[in-house]
Amino acid sequence: xxxxxxxxxxxxxxxxxxxxxxxxxxxxxxxxxxxxxxxxxxxxxxxxxxxxxxxxxxxxxxxxxxxxxxxxxxxxxxxxxxxxxxxxxxxxxxxxxxxxxxxxxxxxxxxxxxxxxxxxxxxxxxxxxxxxxxxxxxxxxxxxxxxxxxxxxxxxxxxxxxxxxxxxxxxxxxxxxxxxxxxxxxxxxxxxxxxxxxxxxxxxxxxxxxxxxxxxxxxxxxxxxxxxxxxxxxxxxxxxxxxxxxxxxxxxxxxxxxxxxxxxxxxxxxxxxxxxxxxxxxxxxxxxxxxxxxxxxxxxxxxxxxxxxxxxxxxxxxxxxxxxxxxxxxxxxxxxxxxxxxxxxxxxxxxxxxxxxxxxxxxxxxxxxxxxxxxxxxxxxxxxxxxxxxxxxxxxxxxxxxxxxxxxxxxxxxxxxxxxxxxxxxxxxxxxxxxxxxxxxxxxxxxxxxxxxxxxxxxxxxxxxxxxxxxxxxxxxxx
Length: 479
Known about the structure:
This protein has 479 residues and is of the alpha+beta class. Helix content is 33%, strand content 18%. The chain folds into two domains: 16-160, no CATH class; 170-473, DD-peptidase/beta-lactamase superfamily (Beta-lactamase, 3-Layer(aba) Sandwich), CATH 3.40.710. It has helices at 8-17, 51-63, 85-90, 93-107, 172-180, 218-230, 265-274, 278-288, 290-298, 313-321, 327-332, 336-343, 356-360, 377-390, 397-403, 459-473; strands at 113-118, 126-133, 139-146, 153-160, 185-193, 199-205, 211-212, 239-241, 262-264, 374-375, 416-426, 429-438, 443-451.
């Protein structure tokens, strides 16, 4: 991710994950026994007659349009009487009450909202599952827990499942039409992963469109490193020290480390994928050598020349955000040998310094057709499958950990047992690529990309389309 380093990744994470309405906190004192309102709407599954079930019944009443009163009204406990003290320390009851009302009116359109399913691991004091608004079909993945002694709520989380709702695509044809209608150029590839690792396509849009993919290119780096470990040339516990000359701009954390700080290769890889750490990425690229990553890419990309020489994230920043506004065009006009010289330490690109001020103001697409990392949606799907396959080879468990550390968007874990993900963006560029395992053992890849050289592209739109795809994948028959 590039521009995403400063704003986009944070916006992505917050927009998708902090729809959660509370924090996982423990403790509390409360006198049990207050009555909760009766159910609103008819739930698909029974609400358990347990302490946590009582609180879920109240939450459903609020999500169905009942007022989220802060104080007790008519013998019914309000928000303030339902929260553990430690929960109240994290969020004031009146703030939570406003948030609950906002979700009800703006997301669920007033309900009624029903309990659609219960996930595994339920007991008398904790429950998770899916809630569905009968007004618009929007689905929330929820978790709720209460203190075993008092029945007070100690944790509450409600996350919108992207793509759910009455307007979700009912077929691959409808979804494909919506992706194809995006301004600029968009692509989509969805396929079942067969037991032998081959892909059986389910949907494809603009299959020949080799688009900029942003930080999804980091899967090439992870794959090359995994091969080095598999072949005994590297170890995951091998230390790699931070070098100031190899530091990049955010996203990430390692750019803040003093020179000489050591991290094992496994940590560089984990942060490269899970938080798209650019400095971690560049250290791995320069440790392995650009040519080593390019060699891994050759078998998984139909036009590797567009990505040769392989750029580090700092290279990208230096040309797009540096003081010399002619540097990018001169680099693009050069042959591969000249480009390598420009990228080398002491070369024009290698010695250029990207501007944090320019990065903070970066909103318009810049050279996204010529100065980026490029792949088709199918190539992204095959890439993540290939890297995941390397995680099954000896000593390569850290590859699986890195791929699955951040699922990108909320998933219903009762349907999806494992999610591997990488995405990337800069102004005008988005790519979202997943490898997912369904609870019945079926495996799928979904990759969707969107480029527009004239204007920003909207992350939430692409997330919603991806969510609609997963809604369709949940219904694909098992084989």
